[in-house]
Amino acid sequence: MPQPQPRTVLVGTPDTLRVLSRQLWHLADAPEPIGCVPVGEHVPAGEAIGAAGPVLGPGSELDQICTAHHIERAIVSLPAAMRDQIVRIRADLRRVGVSERFVAPMVEQLSHAPAPLPGSSLGALGAIDPGVLIGREAHAIDRAAVSDALSGKRVLITGAGGSIGSELSRIAAGFAPERLILMERSENALFEIDRQLATRFPGVERAALLHDVVEGDRTLELVSEHAPDVVFHAAAHKHVPLMEDHPAHALSNNVFGTASILDAARAAGAERFVFISTDKAVHPSSVMGATKRLAELYVQGSCAPGGSGSTRAAIVRFGNVLGSAGSVLRIWGAQLAEGEPISVTDERMTRYFMTIPEAAALVTQAGAMTEAGEPRVYMLDMGQPVRIIDLARRFVEAHGLTPRVRRIGVDAGDSVQTAQQVGDIIVTGARPGEKLSERLSYDAETLAPTSHPGIGVLSDEAAHTPGSARAMLDDLSAARSASAGAVLEAIERHVPGLRSARTAA
After folding, report:
1. How are strands ordered across the β-sheet holding 422-427?
2. Most buried one in 10, 142, 227, 310, CB count within 10 A?
3. How confident is the model at residue 362 (pLDDT cuts 50, 70, 90)?
4. Which residue has the higher pLDDT, 229 or 19?
5. What stretch of H or E contains 194?
6. What gap in Å lies between CA 208 and CA 197, rounded to an integer?
7. Is 280 a known active-site residue?
8. Which residues contact 121 (CB under 8 A, 6 or more apart)?
9. Using CA of residue 31, residue 37, residue 38, residue 43, what is the dihedral sign?
10. What is the pLDDT of residues 377-394, one digit of tens each?
11. Topology of domain 8-113, per CATH?
12. Cα separation, 49 vs 46, whole angstroms
């Protein structure tokens, strides 16, 4: 038996209400609004506006109308230019506890305006600039150096449909490669990035490979067939709490997937291999961070002097990227869209942040710096760490709300019972594997400048050899199908201190 639809009202200008009601009419399980509330133009109560139903009253009385008619949900469609009205309407709806869904007017959806923040209900307010939220200006890249590395080359990108991988694909396409090879295991993600590139760069030859790099034999076949000159390895499992529950998956994807694509790239004679790492690989307290550290060690050992092949390797280490899949901005945007408070795990927690475009651009810059000999670990200039609670406050304010911090089990009160337009921030407590702060380098590593102000290079005095890399992989191989406890024991043999760090985190 279908669930009853919540009592719904449509809110918008007379024009947007007519279009919105026609859009809803085409939905299989569309809500049947009990009426509409016009904004910006007076329409007498009781008069019908298209299929939106009768006018229940003016927009200035929205909160009273919702209370009188026991409204549970409002579907709002207003032009971006009506920012003040949008902010007021959101305040009215929150005050009376009515959930809101925002539908951008069709004319704006077709105008190629900047896309709203994914998950945000404030699409009509335009995109939120992540760079503004973290208070930094992006570093430019040396286009001549990157062009030398990519132009006329066959460029392969793993995880090409992901946040960083797709941006790397767009950047590489702009440097006129001979061929762009997109490797991705998600069918939908691969389809979308291939579609985008076909539209934006029709002159660039592409190959879309639906493939999981963990499958070593097939990876070698594909890489040998396409013979890339440059490989960017962006594919990874990255969600910290999820990988705590699935350590074997983290080991398989992050370590053996990296070994698979690196070995194939070297066997095919690739000129450059760029591995994307993370600050969570430094003194890791999580399975995800530890497996990325193991992947770093494998790259360093496999491509150390004395081994076979001439592939030049680079490891690029950086912190969090804003706007990526699973990042706080998407989570917070979805929470706001559902009328929920946004969540922060700990008020003391800090992170290094960078935008997706800047991170991907600097990865290509670091790739252009790769040299023969010992693989270099490049560290992107992440600026100063940002308190997550401060970022949450800026995010709430950017949506026209007044931030209010509450703590589970400590602060009480109904977030909507206020005359102000409040955006609640709930402090939930740190999750397994999370640190309060991150580091970008080990104590034994020293940071030196490079020719680019946004990139430093780390010296690592530890001895890495092809033999040590292979021995590590052989030891870990037995744990790939073992129990979670056995996987953790195997990882800790090569990342000493992981268990104590997990306990302290």
Report:
1. 342-344, 422-427, 402-407
2. 10
3. very high
4. 229
5. helix 187-200
6. 11
7. yes
8. 100, 101, 102, 333, 336, 337
9. positive
10. 999 998 888 899 999 998
11. Rossmann fold (3.40.50)
12. 9
Residue 354 φ/ψ, nearest 5 degrees: -150, 155
Q: Which of 326-330, 362-366, 420-424, 474-478 has the lowest mean pLDDT?
A: 420-424
- Give ranges for CATH 3.40.50.720 in the chain: 143-321+355-377+446-504
Phi, psi of 9 (to 5 degrees): -125, 145
Contact between 301 and 469 under an 8 Å Cβ cutoff? The reply is yes
Instruction: Please give the Cα distance from 231 to 440 (Å, whole number).
Output: 24
Check pLDDT > 90 for residue 411. Answer: no
Find out whether 280 and 351 touch, Cβ atoms under 8 Å: no
Confidence (pLDDT) at 501: 62
Rg, the chain, Cα only: 26
Question: If 0-12 CB within 10 Å is exposed, 13-18 middle and 19+ buried, where does residue 147 land?
Answer: middle
DSSP letters, 161-185, are TSHHHHHHHHHHHTT--SEEEEEES
Report the C-alpha gap between 209 and 399 in whole angstroms.
Answer: 39
Whole-angstrom distance, CA of residue 288 vs CA of residue 496: 15
Q: How far apart are CA 488 and CA 34, in angstroms?
A: 57
Report the DSSP pairing between strands 99-102 and 154-158.
unpaired
Q: Which residue has the tokens 């809500």?
A: 31
Of 153, 280, 292, 435, the active-site residue reads 280
Closest CA to 173 of 191, 190, 194: 194
Q: Quick one: residue 176, left, alpha or beta (phi over 0 = left, psi -120 to 50 = alpha)?
A: left
Q: Helices 328-337 & 388-398, crossing angle to 10 degrees?
A: 40
Contact call for residues 262 and 313 (beta carbons, < 8 A) = yes
Residue 233 — φ and ψ, nearest 5°? -100, 100
Place of tokens 């992989």: 473
**3-state SS, one letter per residue, for 415-479:** CCCCCCCEEEEEECCCCCCCCCCCCCCCCCCEEEECCCCCEEEEECCCCCCHHHHHHHHHHHHCC
Percentage of the chain exceeding pLDDT 90: 52
Strand partners, 9: 35, 74
Say which CATH architecture domain 143-321+355-377+446-504 belongs to.
3-Layer(aba) Sandwich (3.40)
